[in-house]
Predict the 3D structure of the following.
Amino acid sequence: MFARLTIYQPDHPARQFLLDNNESYLIGRDDACAMHVDDDRLSRRHARLEFASNNWRLVDLCSKNGTLLAGRPIAQCDLAGEQWIELGGVLACFDEVSSEHLAEEEQRFTERWQTSVHLSRAITPSTNLDELLQSVLQSFIEVAGAERGFVMLGSDFDSAQSDAGFPEAGANFAGSLSVVRRTYAERRPIVCSDVRTDSLLVEQASIVAGKISALVSMPLEAGGVMQGLIYVDSREPGKQFT
């Protein structure tokens, strides 16, 4: 069995660390930490993961905002199976997986990437705009491992229109309008692997109604001017957009 830690930092792709039994890992804001997390809620040296007595152990290093395991503050504890951790408010998941499971995950990623390459190569100069947008969207969904999404064209939120959807029946699917509006306002990608970790998203009506668990919203720019965005999401809990 292999152990790993996945850190779900708001507005960042999920980061996954495969743990080596011969190593210990510092977690914190300090650049020297093996698991560096640039979030002010973490202390510079927040916690340590170490392998001792045939178990992985999580040790809080007297951090300012504390470390929680399953919602309870801890000074140190042994980890096993799948356990959810809060590092000063940043969510992380410890789990143990077999080599077969890791190989299956790698195979799924390879298949998604190959599908994306195939879709990209199918685009030719004669491809019309609708076909182009649909191919780009499907490729994005395949690589991200998302369920559905859409492309919006327009330089600002008020003028934007949905021009492609996947599945096709989802062309009118609204997704999280608050995230679309935020992407236009901030002109930067919005990435959330678990909406429970983002206080701005978790209570949004569109998130709750759509049972959205993870999402990506990516600006489309040309010549430094925003032309629209690609939005994809998943209703699968803990979807690891990386």
The chain has a mean pLDDT of 82. The helical segments are 99-121, 129-144, 177-186, 205-210. The two ends are 23 Å apart (CA to CA). The chain has three domains: 2-97, 98-127, 128-234.
